[in-house]
Amino acid sequence: MENIALIESFSEFKDDKLIDRVTLMAILEDVFRSALKKKYGDDDNFDIIVNPDKGDLEIWRNRVVVADGEVEEPNQEISLSEARKIEPDFEVGEDVSEEVKLIDLGRRAILALRQNLISKIHEHDNTIVFKQFKDLIGDIYTAEVHHIRHRAVILLDDEGNEIVLPKEKQIPSDFFRKGDNVRGVIDSVELKGAKPTIIMSRSSPAFLEKLFEQEIPEVFDGLITIKNVVRIPGEKAKVAVDSYDDRIDPVGACVGMKGSRIHGIVRELGNENIDVINYTTNLQLYITRALSPARVTSIKINEETKRAEVILKPEEVSKAIGRGGHNIRLAGQLTGYEIDVFREGAEEDVELSEFSDEIEGWIIEEFSKAGLDTAKSILEQDVNDLVKRTDLEEETIKDVIRILREEFEE
């Protein structure tokens, strides 16, 4: 009974862990073999019998009987007189099995055993958790806010696993309190030391894609396929959808009557504006749809440079570009093409580079990065939008606008 009592004292903490009794007993055997090697120099002549049903473990030491005074290896051999204390009829050359009680290992060895066992169980738990969450990468997961740090929110799931939601992977409008349930996708899992670090994301396009799968039955069933998802978290997103069944309208099925189906997704994402468009292999049509809600007059595509020149009526230009340039940026990401917007009848427009005598080159470069290469492409924009789309100061932008206006007034 000594062994059972000691094992129970070792394993009393297992109830909170992801470990079954059989695995626990296997770990116990491994731990005890390490202790036997340390005490006796070798464990080859020891039998460890594990009974997971009873939670019992027996250790038997096997030695060969030799004549008194001829014991050379005490771990492997036992003198005849010592053997006969165990059984009076032993003879030289016979094998003796003697049970080793855990208490015989000594108090310090037992304390070391306990520490080693705890370490092995934590190691086992961490491996299980790592594998479990590695398989969940890209899937939606829900956990509760445990505490809030400056750069991250720390979540706990029902099993007590810690999940990190970094600031940069949150939606800008996210606001959490302790105890809130939070949904996101498992973004990555890393083993830092022995402990797995689980990262959640709510800003990933994968989160929006999984929300579509969760909220829209046709997507979940595979009747509607999501071809691509691009996002500016909390601001705007574009989702290209397709269906191999001509009877299904993929956009209508995703949006629902008066937006009823997509409303829950929009709310989850902090009122992110979601455009759902029909995917097509017709590139001109795809770019036209990607620029929705703007209505395109004509498109000229250069497949080598991956650029598209889009002509629109003057009143459609601001719609194509969108607030803060979000619409045109997402359309480019969705289609894989750099999109340049031109106004109908804008032949008199002037390349911005023509103003290099009056406007510094780095300023022209900043506008160019935002897809604003001509004078009129800048003059058609609101000053506040230009501030958001570029890294330029408001005063600098106003100076540029003044220079450009003077050119056209002449």
From TrEMBL:
InterPro entries: KH_dom, KH_dom-like_a/b, KH_NusA_2nd, KH_sf_prok-type, NA-bd_OB-fold, NusA_N_sf, TF_NusA, TF_NusA_bacterial. SMART domains: KH (SM00322). Belongs to the NusA family. PANTHER family: TRANSCRIPTION TERMINATION FACTOR NUSA, TRANSCRIPTION TERMINATION_ANTITERMINATION PROTEIN NUSA. Participates in both transcription termination and antitermination. Monomer. Binds directly to the core enzyme of the DNA-dependent RNA polymerase and to nascent RNA. This is Transcription termination/antitermination protein NusA. It comes from Siansivirga zeaxanthinifaciens CC-SAMT-1. The gene is nusA.
